[in-house]
Every structure is written in structure tokens, then in C-alpha cells.
Amino acid sequence: MQKLSVRPLCLLLMGLAAAARVMAQDAPPPPPRPAINLPPVVRSVRASHTGPGMIVAQQPSFPAEIVLSNHGDKDWLEFTQVTSRTRAEIVSARLGWAYALPAGLEFHQGEVITPPSGVAAGASFQVTEQGVAPRADAKDFVAFMEQVTLADGTVANADHAKITAFYTACCTGPNAGKVALPPTIPRAQQDVPGGAAGTGVAQTPDLKPIEFAVVSFRRTERMGPSRVDLPAEGDFIAYHGVPIERLILFAHIAKKGYVSIVGEPDWAKTELYEFEAKVAPEDIAQWKAMTLTDKRAMVGRMLETELKLKVHQETEPQPVYELVVAKGGPKLMDYEPGDTVTPNGGHPLTGKVLSWFDPFNLTCQDTTMAELVNSLSGPQRAGRVVVDKTGLTGVYDFTVPIPYQPLPEQFQQMAEDSGVPSFLVGLKQLGLALQPGKGVVDQIVVDHVERPETN
After folding, report:
1. In whole angstroms, how far apart are CA 182 and each of 131, 215, 243?
2. Three-state DSSP state, 124
3. What is 132-160 written as a DSSP string?
4. Which residues contact 66 (CB under 8 A, 6 or more apart)?
5. Cα(338)–Cα(142) distance, rounded to whole angstroms?
6. Which of 122, 158, 197, 206 has its Cβ near the most Cβ atoms within 10 Å?
7. C-alpha–C-alpha distance, residues 232 and 415, integer Å
8. Residues with Cβ < 8 Å from 228, sequence gap 6 or more?
9. Would you list the domain boundaries of the chain?
10. How far is residue 159's CA from residue 147's CA, in Å, rounded to a whole number?
């Protein structure tokens, strides 16, 4: 048998390697990836102004309430957001404030404010600088609604005696610095899968159906916010740049907390629509008087007609994640009245905030663990429903890296290049962790749905 010579083979391989090196040198280099810098993470901060913090007095029966307020160095009522509690239109309002002096509360009131028309239950309006002079001798600063005038001529005036009683109960003696939270903010969460805090308001028995005069679906490529456009005194409901499954969830969520949806076709998860439904003129008064639960039922009835939607609800045992306190304890900042978060280029926000100011991070202020687990839950977040097992019953300020939606390719590159951590790492930074568990999860099962006819 003839022996093969190794030398020619080696020379051939060396030649090929040299040719490959020459070709590599001649080939143009790959284009550099664009340098992308993320905006800084937005976090809550303690008020940076000099002097005392702000206390918003609770006025349970008043037709309007202060929900956000910024306390600046030059004006102690620099920016305020007011929300209506009445179905009647508010035509004017005044803000009030009081300096807590050694002799007691010294009361003041601002100029009459004329908000935009149509301010009724749940609607808000903003009040800018009030020229409230800082006072070096003030121990505390109390803000409240001084006066509200309704379209029918009714005038509601603040009860200064009740405000004094509130301040005395919350902020003097042994209670100083321990302002009571409004009763609408849950202080503890029941042990309910998905972080729910119980069921919502029941649907009205024998509810008379209403009709929608105009229903519009229009395809779009632009993703919009996931929140519903549903003014309390409006005659319509709308969503902008959302998939059809978002409408199904709105119409059929019966409990507070996270509810999953299964069985829907892929297009119902991925195709985006501009949606609006306007109530028939003869039903507008009834629509405005409905609870949110009743409005959900009316939207569900409309989807049955427009999309031939059929669903049923199940309670399914399945794997979940349990949110627990990690070794070393929680590293959360307790929320205090006056804490402020300022989105890039926006107004400072005081009070409850649960928002994405960039695509990568959820900013939370005055937030419970129940609200956090709802934000973590789902196939596009943790992959499972998350249940609160922390035992933490307070309200907190924190930022955690949770993408707002499945990130488009360019945003994934931004996250990689800028080193955005996963929310698992982000939770560790908060002294929290996820561990596997088993639980019962509420599901909306889609039996049938058809693509909408687009306008």
C-alpha cells in the first residue's frame, strides 16, 4: 500500500489559511452598532426643599381632593393636581393651606380657579403656582381644598375645625411625623393568588343594556399605552394602539389583581388597533351613572356582537412564583407624604405613581406589594402569575427593571448595550426574590373571536 505524504496536505492547509486571512483583511468591517445611552433611572426622592414637609388634609365628604402636589423652595404650593369626587360639573375651586405655628394652624386661601369644563367624577385638573410664601416659623404645612362651586350653584367650603382635628390626630404629640394614610390605600394584602385584594364591585342585577351608536376599529402599527380612555363624564370608551386581547381583558376582568387570558388566536395578541365606541345619545345618561363593573359588562356585550366573542372563566391550579423577602431583609424606601418623583422633562409627582417613564423600568411610589406582584405577573414578565408572600403591608418607593411590553429589537439592543439588569436582579437589589410555588389562577378562556372589520 502506498503511503500518503503529510507534507503536501500541510502545505495546502497553510495556503488556504493564508488566503482566508487575506480575504478577511480585504473584507469591509461590520458596521459599528450605534452608541445608545439610556436616560437615567427615575427614582423617588425625599423633598429637597428647605422647611417642613407637606401634609394633605383628608376631607372625606368634600367634592374634590388634592391627589398630587409639589412643595418648592419659593412656593409651598408650586404645582397641584385636583380630582373631582362629584358627578356634577365643577365650575370653580380654591386651594387652601395652613401654617402650623406654635399658636396653632394659621389658615389661608388662594384665588378662584376656573378649571376646564366637564370636570366631574374621577376627572382631574391642574393648578400651578399659588405664591405661597415659605415660613421659617412653620413646623408643618397643611394643604387642602378650600372651596368648590358646582354648576348648579352649590358651594362647598372647607371645615377648618375638622382640618385642625385631622392635623392634631395625625401629626402632633406621639403621632408627629406619622401621617395616617388615606383609607382607600390598602395597608395589607389578603393571601389571594395573583396579588389580588378581593373581588371587585358586583354587577348591578337586571342591568338594562345600552347601545353603542358608533364602534370603530382601525389597524395601526404604533403601539399605544395599555390604559383605557374612559372619562367619568364622557360618552365613549377608547383604546389606542392595543391588541384585541386588551379589550377582552377589560370586558371580562371580574376580580382585582392579575387575571390571565388563554385560547386567543395569535393575531389577537399581536395586531394593534385604534378602538373607540360611542354611546347612543339616548343611553348617555345611563352610561355616565354606571359603575365601572357595569361598563365592563356593556363592552363585553358589544364585543359579542362586533367580534362574535365567546369566553368562559376558569380557576386553574398551576405553577406560580412567590414573591418573598430575600436573605438580609427588604431594602425598600418607605413612602412618606411629600416624596416626589420627576419624570424626565415632566412635572414632579407626589403621591401614588405606578408608571413606566422609559421602556425598561417600572417606577413605583406609594406602592403596595399587591400592586408590584400584579406588575410582575404574566407571560411577558415573570412567565407565571406572581403571589405576594413577603408579609410586607406598607407602601413603598422603588424602581424595578420591568420592560413595559415585549421590547422591539432596537430597544433590546439598548438594554444590552446599556447593561439593563433583568427584573430578577432588580428584585435582589430591593431585598426581594421569586421562588417557585403552586397556586390557583383565574383565567379568561377565549372560545371564539373574529377579526374586527376595520374602518
Report:
1. 27, 39, 35
2. strand
3. ----TT-SEEEEEEEEEEETTS-EEE--H
4. 56, 80, 81, 82, 95, 143, 144, 145
5. 11
6. 158
7. 38
8. 237, 238, 239, 250
9. 54-175, 203-311+443-448, 317-441
10. 10
Q: Which CATH class is domain 54-175?
A: mainly beta
Contact between residue 92 and residue 157 where contact means Cβ atoms under 8 Å apart: no
Q: Which residue has the cell 377579526?
A: 451
Which bin fits 122, alpha (ψ -120 to 50), beta or left (φ > 0)? left
pLDDT digits (tens, 9 = 90+) for 375-434: 888 777 888 889 889 988 888 889 888 887 666 666 677 677 766 778 888 899 889 999
Report how far residue 226's alpha carbon sits from residue 88's, in angstroms, rounded to the nearest whole number.
29
Which conformational region is residue 318 in: left (phi greater than 0), alpha (psi within -120 to 50 degrees), or beta? beta
Q: Which residue, chain included where needed, has cell 392579575?
A: 258
DSSP letter assigned to residue 335 = P
Q: In the structure grid, which three cell numbers stand for residue 191, read together?
A: 393571601
Query: Strand, coil or helix: what is 418?
Result: helix
pTM to 2 decimal places: 0.52
Among residues 267, 254, 156, 241, the alpha carbon closest in space to that of 201 is found at 254
R_g (Cα) of the chain, nearest Å: 28
In this structure, of 225-229, 318-322, 323-327, 442-446, the range with the lowest mean pLDDT score is 225-229
A 10 A CB-CB count for 353 gives 21
Q: Of 95, 233, 66, which Cα lies nearest the Cα of 151? A: 233
Q: Tens digits of per-residue pLDDT, 169-212?
A: 877 876 655 544 443 333 333 333 333 333 445 677 888 899 99
- Measured CA to CA, the distance from residue 77 to residue 62 in angstroms comes to 20
User: In the block, which residue shows the cell 378602538?
Assistant: 275
Q: Give the pLDDT confidence of 51-61 residue by residue, as tens digits.
A: 666 788 888 88
Exposure string over 83-105, b if 16+ CB within 10 A, otherwise e? bbbbebbbbebbbbbbbbeeeeb
